[in-house]
Amino acid sequence: MAGAAVASLGALIDVAAVAPASAQSFTYNPLPPRPKPPKVANDNQMLVQATEVDYDYNNSRVSAVGNVQLFYNGTSVEADKVIYDQKTKRLHAEGNIRMTDADGKITYAEILDLSDDYRDGFVDSLRVDTADQTRMAASRSDRSDGNYTVFENGVYTACAPCKDDPKKPPLWQVKGARIIHDQQEKMLYFETASLEFFGVPIAYMPYFSTPDPTVKRKSGFLMPGYFPGTTNTGFGAEVPYYWAIAPDMDATITPRFMSRQGVLLQGEFRQRLIDGAYQIRAYGINQLDPGAFSGQPGDKQFRGAVDTKGQFALNDKWVWGWDGVLMSDYYFFSDYRLYQYRDPLGSFLLLPTEALSQLYLTGVGNRSFFDARTMYWLSYSGNQSQVPIVYPVIDYSNVLNYPVFGGEFSYKTNFVNLSRDEAVFDPITTVANTSSLCTTASADPLARTPSQCLLRGFPGTYTRLTAEAQWRKSFTDPLGQIWTPFASLRADAINSSVSNQPGVSNYLPVGDTQAFRLMPTVGLEYRYPFINIQPWGSTTVEPIAQIIIRPNETYAGKLPNEDAQSMVFDASNLFSVDKFSGYDRVEGGGRANVGVQSTTQFDKGGAVKVLFGQSYQLFGMNSFAVQDSINTGLDSGLDKPRSDYVASTSYSPNSTYTFSVRSRMDEQTWNVQRFEAEGRANFNRWAVSVLYGNYAPQPELGYLTRREGILTSGSLKIATNWVVSGSARWDLEANKINQYVLGAGYVDDCFVLAANYVTSYSYAAGTAPPVLSHAFMFQIGLRTLATSSTSSNSAGLQ
């Protein structure tokens, strides 16, 4: 029959009520309405579109032929021919079949025979594509009870077919003599299965099961892992079991079977609530051979740990949370290479020195910030008495939304209270006996002096409350000059109680000290930009001058310094009003900061920015020339009336290349005190960066010789999905590469393969030789099936 036919087959159960399909344009004309029968299941209408629709009144069959499209209960069927049998209530389709269900799953086949509710039937020569890009194929599948689908000679993969050659085997696939899909359990069961890569079998499994691709979380065993172990623990294997307790909580139990020490049990519980989430991890082992750790903290029968973290929202601006760690001994995590001992990348190379336990409350407003937390660091090195306890540290800052005297007004506060049991000394020189003097209890500990050691952490308690208010306003005069007056007032109330341990009195007053420190500041900043426009672009040259007037820093060098120990003077902080990095020190005395800044913008893209300047101590005491317990400011370039010169240059010709140079030069000899040059290039297929650093000796800080080195890194996309990368740090003074990383990885939509090798030297104080550490990390992942990773770490002397 020529032409197109459209029929609503909901009423075709009674085919005698339908007019013969003899017209060129088919129209359904029902008889006068009759009482409707009682509504039963699957009473939804079935819509069919086809080139030709034929009715077999004798056999109660309706046939649709030619470009058939059938829609029923959210499922569509496309085929060359579809036959619906009223008596058996079965749907039979043939030729180029494409069936799409309500979930987006697409089934391709040559023959399809199903009941009209799709609960039972069979399909020959089928391929199934799911909405999450997984695929199955089989010579035949049988469906029963609306739940079970059995694929004969089935193939499963999460890889897309090759665009150039769809018949080419995918990167990986799992074949099974039978694959059973239990739709209610949402499980796939594979019988007599094999795992193939590029069509080559590499593993055989008589039986295994996995959740179907629609499952995001389901109870069951996860991919096993291998633990290379150490001589003390032996090698081991992990078999994790995941338990999906409820939609909002789950648990993972991971026993690790160790060849020498027995079974290490690991458990993790997680729960997500309406306003946040938390998790708890627990570890425990009853060691079979504690003597393997003879003379070490691990020489005990039971060892274990607990760590937890969580965060909850009070509203859209406030959150509170915690991190916590408890251990039976401080070597437990490192001996068994457990979670808390790893860095964020999972590597065991850059080993952390402590674990942080804290309780915090944080609030963020439009122009305000609040943070309060208590902190306790659990030392992995056993020096717990030298680690401070902070209870608490509180920060609050706010910028008013309205002007004050026409300018911007802001204020901030900081409160800290901490304690430490034992002093922390670091050697200034590398002479062996001096190092011993600083790090151990020597025969004459009172000999520790500021010329030999730095007091990194004082013993005792320390409390400080800081409040500071700031105001500034900018004016532009008719000549284009920009004037910015500013003022601030800072007050510090300090109470310190320094224990009289050996050598501490050489650095700080021992006993109780109460101090009040007030620092009023007024200043003026001046800028006068000159703009030159050329056909190729524009250049802005801007002289900058800043004058600051304030009194001397009181109690300079006589109070503990915990948060202002870092001091690097360069172009980035040339115009900072207070160049100290924390609150425990405050810059005092009159100072002028001057410099010139130039920015060139090219019309064809790219820019060059240059800054050069110097700082001058105008009057009063120079805070950076005052020796404190750790010599902050000494050898910084600011510890003299005329500072060293600082300069920086950056050039970006386009989005591909970036070059920058930062330097500090002696103000009398122009000798380079600090120099860094960096270049970066980022193309479509490769990226590279090179950083060269050259730093003059800083004897007052313990750096007796010049430090010079090169850090390089790069990555290359050698193929569509293959990337190799590497980095190396070359110590030019020692003429040795003291760290390098080599890695390669393959990533696509269905498979991940990555391998990394890392090695580095850790240098100890005094004459101890450097320790060479190696780490190898390997990861493989099959999307929707499994992800596994393993790593090994070793260390030796060189």
Automatic annotation (TrEMBL):
Gene3D superfamilies in UniProt: Lipopolysaccharide (LPS) transport protein A like domain
Subcellular localization(s) per the UniProt record: Cell outer membrane
Keyword tRNA processing appears in the UniProt entry: no
Subunit structure: Component of the lipopolysaccharide transport and assembly complex.
Signal peptide start and end residues: 1-23
Pfam family, one: LptD
Source organism of the structure: Bradyrhizobium symbiodeficiens
Role description: Involved in the assembly of lipopolysaccharide (LPS) at the surface of the outer membrane.
Keywords: Cell outer membrane, Membrane, Signal
Name of the encoding gene: lptD
Protein name: LPS-assembly protein LptD
